[in-house]
């Protein structure tokens, strides 16, 4: 059976690899010059960096499985460290989330939070956590409403819930889905100690999976085409039969997966399957300091500043720091030069051992980095199967419990492939 996959991001590649492993004839079409989607390689002088710093944790089980499927060893590709997170604030004492104690999980996490917060705020935190099960089943509340319903203090909102919400969902707390946030908290912090581990890639994410996936597909004689933009879907009746490109090429198929950006998918879908999402930006500032410069921990949070999260990428390039600013804000109106100066000054206040200025810098602004994960989003995210026979959708915006993450993208790509495999098996049985 012939399958065309449109989009060589992590979701499209996940679908293509899974279909290949089940004997499908796969053709991969990608509009860009390289694979990876929003986790692709970017050249910066003699460095190869990610187009944005991604937060990855031990709960990303399907990501690890997929990396193994293409012949890579994920344990060798990531620095994995137990949860040891400090969130600084200009108004409150630093907040500590860590897994240092050998006590059963999540007692070490709760112990560190109680020590940082004091009894009153810790009781408020427990009240908030007691509503996780409720919000997993209800999709009408925002994270801010959840905070207000459980009488969270200004400190808890500004120093804990808002930073975690922005880091995981890239959506302001007054809009973000409480249901999705509840799922993130449950799976990352409250299930297993190892699920809360922080993963930082030792090299670019493009070389961790996308490049290996392309090599995997080519080694199995599948067609891979870059700089090939699909502009229309051809049908015969209610059945998809081909994808047509801007160069006039036609790729015949039995099954077609659209695994590209939501905006492009919308242009290719029939009216019955139209989807509309709002999107929010992510800004990543890469700062190259002297090679011996280090943060005190691999990841540091900050509230009340433009800089939200600092990542030490020294295992990749010694002295390299990535600063992430999620969502909209005043930083979008600041020039890259001024933004770098401002962020370097904030780093000096947070980490006095760091130099006053970086040697080099690169600012990457992804204006439509992720969909806005609002309170109503779970009712809007489409299913993988469309109204047209043989037309499927994949990507982090397709129906899934998680927000726009690499794990959601991979999971949806694999699920889409599995649905096609099941459909093919059903057709085969009916023809016997």
Automatic annotation (TrEMBL):
MF terms (GO), sorted A to Z: oxidoreductase activity
Coiled-coil segments on the chain, per record: none
InterPro entries attached to this UniProt entry: Amino_oxidase, FAD/NAD-bd_sf, SQase_HpnE, Zeta_carotene_desat/Oxidored
Boundaries of every Amine oxidase domain copy: 11-421
Gene3D superfamilies: FAD/NAD(P)-binding domain
NCBIfam families documented for this protein: HpnE (TIGR03467)
Protein known as: Phytoene desaturase
């Amino acid at each position: 059976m012939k399958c065309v996959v449109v989009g060589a991001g992590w979701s499209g590649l996940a679908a293509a690899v899974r279909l290949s492993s089940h004997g499908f004839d796969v053709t991969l079409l990608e509009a860009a010059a390289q694979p990876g989607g929003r986790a692709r390689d970017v050249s910066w002088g003699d460095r190869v960096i990610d187009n944005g710093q991604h937060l990855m944790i031990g709960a990303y089980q399907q990501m690890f499985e997929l990396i193994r499927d293409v012949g890579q060893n994920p344990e060798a590709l990531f620095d994995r460290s137990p949860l040891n997170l400090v969130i600084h604030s200009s108004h409150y004492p630093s907040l500590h989330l860590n897994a240092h104690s050998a006590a059963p999980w999540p007692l070490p996490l709760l112990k560190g939070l109680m020590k940082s917060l004091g009894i009153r705020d810790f009781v408020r935190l427990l009240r908030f956590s007691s509503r996780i099960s409720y919000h997993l089943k209800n999709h009408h509340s925002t994270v801010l409403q959840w905070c207000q319903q459980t009488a969270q203090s200004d400190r808890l909102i500004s120093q804990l819930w808002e930073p975690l919400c922005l880091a995981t969902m890239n959506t302001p707390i007054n809009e973000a889905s409480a249901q999705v946030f509840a799922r993130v908290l449950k799976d990352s912090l409250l299930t297993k100690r190892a699920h809360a581990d922080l993963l930082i890639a030792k090299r670019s994410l493009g070389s961790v999976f996308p490049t290996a996936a392309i090599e995997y597909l080519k080694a199995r004689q599948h067609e891979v085409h870059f700089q090939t933009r699909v502009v229309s879907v051809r049908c015969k009746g209610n059945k998809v039969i081909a994808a047509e490109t801007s160069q006039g090429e036609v790729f015949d198929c039995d099954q077609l997966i659209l695994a590209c950006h939501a905006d492009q998918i919308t242009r290719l879908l029939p009216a019955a399957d139209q989807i509309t999402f709002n999107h929010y930006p992510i800004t990543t500032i890469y700062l190259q300091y002297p090679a011996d410069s280090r943060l005190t921990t691999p990841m540091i949070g900050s509230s009340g500043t433009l800089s939200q999260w600092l990542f030490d990428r020294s295992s990749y390039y010694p002295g390299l720091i990535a600063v992430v600013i999620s969502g909209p804000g005043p930083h979008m109106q600041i020039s890259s030069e001024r933004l770098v100066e401002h962020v370097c000054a904030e780093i000096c206040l947070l980490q006095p051992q760091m130099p006053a200025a970086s040697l080099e810098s690169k600012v990457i602004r992804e204006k439509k980095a992720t969909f806005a994960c609002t309170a109503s989003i779970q009712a809007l995210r489409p299913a993988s199967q469309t109204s047209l026979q043989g037309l499927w959708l994949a990507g982090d915006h397709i129906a899934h419990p998680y927000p726009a993450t690499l794990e959601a993208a991979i999971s949806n790509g694999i699920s889409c492939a599995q649905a096609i495999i099941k459909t093919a098996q059903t057709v085969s049985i009916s023809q016997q």
